[in-house]
Amino acid sequence: MCNPLKGNLLILNLHELAAHTGSWAEAYPEIVTCANMFWYPAGAEWPDRLASEPGTGQLNPLNAKTYEVVKNVIRDVARIFPDPFFHAGADEVIPNCWKTDPSIQSFLANGGSLNQILEKFVNSTLPYIVSLNRMVVYWEDVLLDAEIKVDTSILPNQNVILQTWNNGPNNTKKIVDLGYQVIVSSSEYYYLDCGHGGFLGNDSRYDKPPGTDQGNGGSWCAPFKTWQTIYNYDITYGLTAAEAKLVLGGEVALWSEQADPSVLDSRIWPRASAMAESLWSGNRDEKGVKRYAEATDRLNEWRYRMVNRGIGAEPIQPLWCVRNPGMCNTVQPL
To answer: Where does the record place the Glycoside hydrolase family 20 catalytic domain (predicted)?
Structure first.
């Protein structure tokens, strides 16, 4: 993750808490709701799903055992990684997954709310992480989700950073307006897994007549994010100078639904390198003009250096273009 403003590198212990915890049920089934259930019941509408993708499972904040397990994991991770940051997740908490649990059903029937359940989880884990001398990073959902979120009063901005992945610069603006520092991981620009089609079976989106829109690659965050798209994104777009100071930097993401070691190098490189130059050195020259044209040659050279070192970085141009600099531009430079 690169920081164009303060010139250092932030390393996170990436860890999902609250949602995306179905795997925890293999060891502690009693603390996980809706584990191993079908994620999108037949005939259900999208709001009635149990997860935003398979598989299912969320920690139960009303179970005291949950905190015994979670705090042990937090403690162990903090011991292993000395970084000053701990990522506590909290994205994509799905209402109906929690609602499958009898204890949560009872809580809601007696006037409780889903927001209160998430607040209980945050109030029980945030102070513990802070006590380990860590700044806590949450996904933006913890404050901006349309259905389950907490109040800013329980997320002190001196201890909390938010990481944004939705809605491009608009959500970045919302976060800094709330006074929080932000890490930008916009899915519209920085998600490296996008554009390779969906991974679900029995998907009717791919059964379209010739001549109709074929879905732009199929995946939810399509199209594929080219290195130019990544390089040209300004993570402080639309912010004032004061607001921009709250933007710590950015992080590209490669989620693993359709990525394993066989494609890892080519999915990451050299696109992550384009992001690194853009954030470390800026994507504009001294006159304020975007410098993606000259960056092409640098990225080509860097890609071949990586290949020579055994990294399977994908090519960004035909070899002929590399051997004939400038001949593959869209227009001849002035």
So the answer is: 18-282
DSSP at 59: E
Torsions phi, psi of 248, nearest 5? -75, -35
State the Cα torsion 26-32-33-36 to the nearest 10°. -10
The larger pLDDT score, comparing residue 294 to residue 115, is at 115
Whether residue 295 contacts residue 228, with contact meaning beta carbons closer than 8 Å, is answered with: no
Look at the block and give the residue holding tokens 């199929």.
218
- From residue 252, how far is each of 235, 237, 271 by CA, in Å? 12, 17, 9
Entry pTM? 0.92
Contact partners, residue 33, CB within 8 Å, separation at least 6: 57, 58, 59, 60, 97, 98, 100, 101, 104
HSE-CB of 63 using CA atoms within 13 angstroms: 21
Other C-beta atoms within 10 Å of 249: how many? 21
Alpha helices in 42-85 (DSSP H): 64-80
Residues 6+ apart with CB under 8 A from 228: 274, 292
Angle at 310 between CA 308 and CA 311, to 5 degrees: 100
Q: Which of 61, 125, 64, 70 is nearest to 97 (CA)?
A: 61
Tell me the C-alpha distance between 111 and 157, whole Å. Answer: 30
The DSSP call for residue 191 is: B
- How far apart CA 311 and CA 309 sit, in angstroms, is 6
Cis ω for the linkage preceding 55 (within 30 of 0): yes
Alpha helices for 159-216 (secondary structure H): 168-177, 187-190
Question: Looking at the annotation, which residues are catalytic?
Answer: 92
Dihedral over alpha carbons 84, 237, 188, 146 (to 10 degrees): 80
pLDDT of 68 higher than 80: yes
